[in-house]
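**Protein of interest**
===
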Amino acid sequence: MAYYLYIILAMIIWSSLGVFIKSAELPVATIMFYPSAISVFIQLPMFLSKKMRQEFPSFKKISLLALVSLVVLSNTYSFFLAYSWTTIPNAVFTHYIAPVLVAILSPVFLKDKLHVSIFISLTVATIGLWLILKDVSIVAIVKSGGFDRNLFGIISGLVSGVMYAVLVILLKLYMNMYNRNIIVFIQNTFVALYLLPFVTLPPRQYIWMFIVIGIFHSTIANYLYYKGLEKVQACKAAILGYIEPVGSILCGIIFLSEHVNLFSLIGGVMIIFSGYIVMRQKHEECVQPL
């Protein structure tokens, strides 16, 4: 039971991230860089352990993690943009297209079985996305040559969902060769290095926010999640992951007084349900006797 709680706590922590991002009037690169750098600094003492130093990967394996870190950066950056440009519900709803995409990609890259549930979930998710975009006139935006923050926020949420799906596939393929604590450290290190050329000094009033995100969202939540995955099957962990969008929406309503459009709410619930259909199938496979 304790390992389930680790994952639940991680999801609750991550669900509050949108409130911080939308409250800060800063470039996304800046919001990402400083928490990543703080997380790296916090994790440095673990390398005082001889065992941890011995487990540090070779240059070849670090190169692979550098590639994975680019995917992490793309996923997080686009998700942060979605938070900045559209409502929290639209951001998390579109981001959670990821489980459906993983179900589509896993038979190709992970040799998983192809189930009818994949086609059902994809249909449900597509209808849900259409409902979210129902009030967005793309034709009018193109004709006017304007920039619609809501539309681009939704697109950014979709991009983050795609990149998250790619990340899950990569983790399934390669991450068993690394110590999980070292994965978090190296990923944060590369993310900070990638963003360094684009960062400016932040206003002093936001330093506290970077410290909070660096400690809780970039470090503690990651450790809790990986700790939980040590004993909790991946399919069950994925179902627990749906705590995050629910928590994110509640945070947006409570702290930012955001209103949820009825069509967006229905569409978002359909996207989340489409992911649940897939994860429920995976869960049934998990509990089947050998």
Observations:
- Residues 138-143 have pLDDT under 50 and may be disordered.
- The first helix runs from residue 2 to 15.
- Residues 2-285 form one domain.
